[in-house]
Design a protein that fits this description.
Blueprint: H1 11-25, H2 32-47, H3 53-68, E1 72-76, H4 78-94, E2 98-101, H5 108-120, H6 122-129, E3 134-136, E4 143-144, E5 154-155, E6 165-169, H7 174-181, E7 185-189, H8 196-200, E8 203-205, H9 209-223, H10 228-236, H11 240-256
Parallel strand pairs: 1-2, 1-6, 2-3, 6-7, 7-8
Antiparallel strand pairs: 4-5
Helix pairs in contact: 1-2, 1-4, 3-9, 3-10, 3-11, 4-9
The chain binds ligand PTJ.
Length: 261
Amino acid sequence: ISFVPKTHPRYKSLLNREKVVEALDKGILAKAGLTAHGRGEAFDYLIGEKTTDIALKSIKASAAMLVLAENPVISINGNTIALAKDEIVQLAEELNGKIEVNLFYRTKEREENIKKAFEEDLTIKEKLNNNKIKLLGLNDANRQIPNLDSLRGKVSEKGIYSADVVLVPLEDGDRTEALVNMGKKVISIDLNPLSRTARKSTITIVDEITRCIPLLTKYVKEYKKMDKKALKNIVDNYDNKENLKEMLNYISNRLKTMDLG
Ligand code: PTJ
């Protein structure tokens, strides 16, 4: 049951909080996921809680990169599952279906609870049975990302280990660099444009996950009909450092000219 009335001016944000708390109760979210969520909320305030044109550029470049990829994988953690499980499934279906569970705070119990959350949903279960989507990283995280000591380093051979493009929403930092060092392209979703993840990624989408995944899916669908040369052009014209600078300028201008009335 939701305690948040639909008319509340901050409905969406409060609903996301409820989802995160619910996922904690179900043993899906790491406790640290609560503070990570709060940090995200704070940055979302700074950007005005909407998808900026700057983020849209990153979304389009990401869609092009995902369509061009030979073996893309969507990495998911507790926060991503709490907020955007269904949206991630829809995106994966438009690609090769590969979703990999990759946890910083990896415990057997959380793995079980996550598996249950996917299989309890009958629509998702059917998609798993029909191989429209594949949930990797639970029983098959047998490979190791070189130079990454955390449990995030345990990955699936068919998933992140062999992927050419990895989408990493709400990342914790050092893995992005390790994946880039393996020669992979990393697309991250992170509301904090100052984070190490944001700076090390090939493409950073500075936007809230539940807002940007549906947009990403929309552009993936559209770009699947486009020729590869045009898509390559979109990717080649994208500069991540430039995009992050634009985002920081956007935030500082917004704050300087803000009307508090
Ligand atoms: O589930 P696990 O065990 O893999 O653990 C997941 C967390 C999130 C706890 C772990 O990865 C972590 O500690 O992450 P960080 O270092 O706190 O980074 C998370 C980033 O996600 C922060 O920079 C936040 O600004 C950002 N963030 C939080 N909520 C959102 C978000 N970005 C987009 N949309 C959000 N809703």
